[in-house]
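Worked problem 6 (solution included).
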Amino acid sequence: MTDSTTSDQGPTWAGFLDLSPELRNRVCEHALISSAPLWVSSRPTASGQKFKVWHFDAVCPSLLASCRQVNQEATAVLYGANTFTFYFYDMCDTTEPVFRALGDSREYIRSFETMPGTMEILLHTIGDSRRHIRSVVLESFGCPAKEKSWARLAQASGLKEVVVQIREKDLTQHGMATLIACVGQLSPTSLDLCEGVRLEVVKGLDSQGVTDENSSEEFKQELRIRYA
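Solution. The predicted structure is:
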């Protein structure tokens, strides 16, 4: 008679790290990429600044807390594949503490939308991570950026496109001259000032930016004269 040996061990389950890097990346993309921009605003409290992020429920940032390796892999997806948008009136209260809290994760940011006034705080805070930024949308509603803000943006060495949105009523000689002076601060970067900068004209508060070919071409022509 042959004794049968019964194993009391349960089934062996594969862990997340047992998956191939390609599969893990696909899981991270599914869990961490929002189809809408992540809008960030702030409010002061007795214990300090608190933040509200709209559409954050569309992603699962808790995945980053699972272990160090997953954190390293997923961080690049969360901050590199989403667009973060900041309101102008929050420029001093939101961007600096948010990006300070992000720490080294700032380096993964690729895209953000912001009023020009937010740039200095934002770019100062993310430090060397500016080199990872590829595309910027600037909503300029009668409040052009300070030149030193654009000088910081020049340190985003990977920048390829800047879209400047300006109200139609601000298409004045002074307004354009200010914008041109600011844009000139972008040099040197990998951005071609004459080709990578596009001007959009906004008709009203609720309107979308529309590329005005005449104004945009005049804008680029002035850039060529000054900086080419």
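Discussion: The CA atoms of residues 193 and 223 lie 7 Å apart.
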